[in-house]
Design a protein that fits this description.
alpha+beta, Alpha-Beta Plaits, 3 helices, 4 strands, 35% helix, globular
């Protein structure tokens, strides 16, 4: 199984971030093909790096790297990736791991 972990740093406006993430971004992610699991943190996130405080962490699970790549290259995947610029002004770190 492949896990895509998306770490969102603290945005300028957390309330606007949360509303956009919940109402716009999550529905886009949920349309991505081959997605086997999608979850995200609720509430405070602690980080060992105080210089880069974290606001939210999302997890997207896929059966294989090929499925992840196909998902990201789909129309739904491209829309979700493009949408990140609309709300994640604090910066994003993306990790891909095998679990």
């Amino acid at each position: 199984m492949i896990r895509l972990t998306v770490i969102y740093n603290v945005p300028a406006n957390a309330t606007a971030f949360d509303a956009h993430y919940r109402d716009v971004h999550c529905p886009l992610v949920e349309k991505m093909p081959h997605l086997q699991g999608f979850s995200y943190s609720r509430g405070a996130v602690t980080s060992s790096d105080a210089a880069k405080p974290v606001h939210l962490v999302a997890y997207l699970d896929y059966a294989s790297m090929a499925d992840l790549e196909a998902s990201l290259n789909s129309e739904a995947g491209k829309a979700a990736v493009a949408d990140v610029a609309n709300f994640a002004d604090g910066g994003v770190t993306i990790l891909t791991t095998e679990i």
